[in-house]
Amino acid sequence: MSARAAGDPIMPARPFDRRAIDAVVTYHLDSFRSGVARFNEILAQRLHVPLVALHSREAAATRSPLLSFKVDELDPVASEAFEGVVRRPETRFELFLHSYSALPREKFAIRRAVRVWCGNHEIAHAVQGLNACVKTLWTPGLVLDQRVLGSGEISVFSFGMAHKIQTDRFRRLRELLEATERSYVVYVSTAIHETSSMRDAQDVYEEMHEIFPRELYFMGHLSDVAVSNYLRSSTLFAAFFPMGVRDNNTSIASAMEHGCVVITNLDRFSPRHLRHMENMLDIDQCRELPSDPLALKRMSVGAMETARARDWDDLARQLRPSDVSRS
């Protein structure tokens, strides 16, 4: 970020015609990946106005938007859309500057803005000569879910879930959990290697929160060591599939290796080694969740024994030529 160049003209105050903001215009839409996007998401909610993408038709139709993003991050398509908004004579826009890079298009927008809001004093100092209505604001914290991480008599963990949530089976799981009349919590994580984008994580959260409105704790992207610890401490690991679990599902394998009792769904192509009430639970066969600690322990041990026979070393042995001697 650089201060105003010595040769930049000082703009006189524009005739003040400040209208109510009719939209917050953002560049990044993925609030899991961008702090500015998350800021804009919350701000739009508090202002009771829509959050719209810079390159969208909705942004082009606004008349008094708040443009809130880092101009130096704009790609060519977004830059063109930005130029279209700030050059439109009838648009009375405001700017929220999260940074300042002294780009020509950035300076032009600052000069044309009805008001310029700056995220800190350094930005305000750099742009104060470009617009007569420069105000310094701040950015509140983005952590709005401040619940103490809950615990229950039954804890269910699920991670991965890049596939579409199997709503019916998760609703069935909720019925089984409710029927136990015991307290329970559901922890959900979207493993980094399982999701194509952070938006997938948001989709997972929204669907799961609808099913478990009070009991759900969304853990975001967890590292392997964090996933490992949740698998060790949880009562059940839940994952459901459009048809049935397959031999190459790594999250099921990880849960079984840790001795976490898996609850999933089976079909005729599911692994032959998965046996209901022996080393896992098939939700389509469940009439109730087992509560006997010994039954759960037997399934846990059975899961670990099954996984041990299908580990990385055994996989490597299967792929080696049979005539290669082993030390």
Provide a short characterization of the protein structure:
The protein has 327 residues and is α/β, with parallel strands linked by helices.
Strand order of the largest sheet: 2-1-3-4-5-6
Biggest beta sheet attributes: 6 strands, parallel
Going by helix content, strand content and strand pairing, the class is: alpha/beta
Strand percentage: 5-15%
Global Rg: 27 Å
Shape: elongated
Order of helices and strands: EHEHEHEHEHEEHEHEHEHEEHH
Total beta strands: 12
- Low-pLDDT segments: 1-17, 192-196
Mean pLDDT: 85
Number of helices: 11
Taking the alpha carbons of the first and last residues, their distance comes to 61 Å
**Amount of helix:** 25-40%
